Amino acid sequence: MACVIREMQRAVPLSRVSRVCSCFSSRESATSSSSIDQRILCLSLLPIRIFSSQFSTLGTPQRTSNTSAKLLQEPSTSVYSPLSFFSMPRSYLYKFSSASLRWQRRYFTSNALVTLRADSDVVRFCIDSPPPSDGAQQNKKKFKRAKMSKKAKINELRMYRLKAKKKLRSPNPEVRIRYKLEKAKRKEEWLIEKLRKFENPTLPQQVYDPEILTEEERFFLKRTGEKKKNYVPLGKRGVFGGVVLNMHLHWKKHETVKVICKPCRPGQVYQYAEELARLSKGIVIDIKPNNTIIFYRGKNYAQPDVMSPPNTLSKAKALEKYQFEQSLEHTSQFIEKLEKELEDYHKHVALYKQNKEVSIEKATDTE
Fold first, then answer.
1. Which InterPro entries match (predicted)?
2. Distance of CA 82 to CAs 87, 168, 263, Å?
3. Which among 132, 136, 168, 324 has most CB atoms closer than 10 A?
4. Using the 8-state DSSP alphabet, how is residue 83 labeled?
């Protein structure tokens, strides 16, 4: 028994071995059902390697039950249940030695689990395969596409350039126009996706009640705003955080401020005035024909802690957005031009076919 315990200590942790030793050292009778159940439960915690083919190396015992004799007569590659361990006589267990107990090699070991089932009032051991874990599926190697060499990439780009040159130099004008149209539409889709990144999330608007001014007050503020020289330039970047910050800095010492919009499309100045009034919480006094807006800070003006609103673009981002917008505008115009050219070409081809048919009919009539 000591040899068996030493071999168990090599294979399993000390906590499990202590449980098994306590079961073997119990003074209860072998026929007691409670002691047998305790031993079965303890041995079910051990690895299945203990109940391997090592018992077959000792030969057939003299006094064994029919079930244990059958188990011991099986070939060495079979796996035994823990019940066969209890059916062997106690004197036979002392014959184990360190030389006779050899662990199986890796290709004989198994990852199966020994479980105890009690179905239809019958207690039996079952060997089940372990359930597949999610981590094992995630650890599967994903086949990655082989990286192309620099020379292969250059050859691929060269092939695309040759195809493009063939289409551009095609004698058929429809092929040339369609190639340019497809390329322009791809660029338009790409620009739209780029511009989506500059869309700021709409924050909940604060309750803003603008002050009501009389006509006399408006006239007075308009004259004072025209006379003063302080102004804020609004260029091609449009409305961004820096414009609102400059307005608040001017309102620190002046009641009014001029915002000069250059360059500005016709009608765009009104959009700028509405957006700046919402962001700065100022009052629009007048909009001049030369795209100049006069803002009034208000009677109860208090400079905010954060003068640049958080939901606005920075100066660099605003310039990048302007460049994408300009490119999108020119691309859309180019697409309209190509579509019109393609339509005119189809009309020309239809007219040419019609004239050809008429000439053929006239030739047949004269004959």
1. At3g25440-like (IPR040286), RNA-binding_CRM (IPR001890), YhbY-like_sf (IPR035920)
2. 9, 82, 90
3. 324
4. H
